[in-house]
Amino acid sequence: MNKLLAPYLMTAFVSLVGASGSFAAPLNCQDMVDESPQGIKITSSVRTVNKDVKGAFCAVRGVLEPRQGIDGKSYATHFEIRMPDNWQGRFAYQFNEGNDGYVKPALGGITGLKVSQYAINQGFAVLSSNGGHDASANLNEGLVGSSLFGHDPQARLDYAYASVEKLAPLAKQIVERYYQTSIRYAYGIGEGNGGRLAMVAATRFPSMFDGLLVGAPGLNQPRAALQAPWDVQILHRLSKEIQQQVSAKDLALLAQGVISQCDGLDGIRDNLVFAIDACQSVFKPTELVCHGKFDRDCIETETLAALINMHRGPHNSNDIALYSGWLFDSGVRSKNWRQWRLRSDVAFWDYQAVHHVLTASALANIYMTPPYDVKGTAYSLTTFLLSFDFDKDVARLTHQQKPFTASSLALMNPPDVQRPRLDKFKQAGGKMILFHGNSDPAFSVKETVRWYDFLDFYHQGRASDFVQFYRIPGMPHGQGGSSVDSFNSLEPLVQWVEQQQPAGTITAYTRRSNPEITPSMIGLSRPLCPYPSYAHYQQGDLRAASSFVCRGG
After folding, report:
1. Cβ neighbours for 275, distance < 8 A, ≥ 6 positions apart
2. How far apart are CA 494 and CA 426, in angstroms?
3. Right CATH number for 6-221+414-502 from 3.40.50.150, 3.40.50.1820, 3.20.20.80, 3.30.565.10?
4. pLDDT tens digits for 268-296?
């Protein structure tokens, strides 16, 4: 953060959608291969165009710290930087989701944004990397291949946060060399694992970024993975055919029960439950149970009990919670929720759920110390999850032994994850916008609520001075569900950082292209209110965000 330059830079401020700034002419893009900072090798640089980017840009690709791991495999941090012609003095590190391992196009997109609103299209130079390992290095290992980097201690560390620590300052040098002037503002953008990385950066590198845009963060990510064996063991008690024990109809009935009992709590029945906290007190899932074999539109007792237990979250034999529970919300009927928790459409996975494949593989290879040896077949992963011991095996999330000198929880989490403070981030002038879908099946919004409540308590009710948190009803892990899942969270962050305009309500819209909204939801707009407030209907057009006020908090 160039605080000493801020008074001078502000006079040359360019708005988010304004005309091009007054910068020196950039270097010839092809010449950037000869402009590598020490420690980096730029492998290609070409000026090009792309359907997702308005205007031409200089694409620079390179590699940092190639090495051989203790597992005999080759490792390196590969990266891409896209530097647009309409640069506005901004830099964004795009933190990628999942197990990383490949360089996603550096666009600066995140859930809610339209393509035109991506960071690259708002004058940002955008960086993307593979997190220090190559996901294609172990393709012959089947379903566990993408997580086997977890057998190398340095690869674990790079994935956790070290690749960001090393690459960000060097990438900034490349951007500044190309444009021949200093970066005005630096941002980090990410969701899921990328959201976790952003929150780690806020604690470990508090002056690295002026603004952080965080979606559905994987806080306590190794503990979140415990939901995979928890679900499988619950479903297996119903029947060995895990994928078939909870039907789409069961989930639809559960979602409809939430809507029937809770939808009016926010002043209007519109298939959106904004008063989600009140809903958890009001909602009685037992009212949905079948009482006789001829009952229809009800859920069998054993199936309902399984769903309630899945929402409860993982516990050990002493009934101590190992991770947050999950909200009852309408998004449980979404395709995204089913794909994560019950059954996917991937034939290569034997149609197993995302949790039962990718999460299981990560749990065994990345989060457990030492790594658990599991074969790369759906059968082997299911066997691993069924045999998981919530007393003994959980200890391997906090265990460390040579060559692993830190546990996965110590590596993956912000150091203050249980009682966050972010003092240095706040003192450096950092701002954060955080959002999370109430129906997220991968990372519980309740864990994000817990984190924010602790932060707000520590700051005596003033956490919103530098962190704003928004919850989206009905939205799963990313867009989808019966939700208002189109919203621009980047613009208010930029205005907050660069113009000192605090982020308030954000207007969200339904998408006509979303097949999971009801016909009555087409064309709806609603305000996303800063937590703990929620949108409540006041008066006026039932379809318009302007007819709502923020209540609570």
Report:
1. 262, 265, 266, 534, 536
2. 16
3. 3.40.50.1820
4. 999 999 999 999 999 999 999 999 888 88
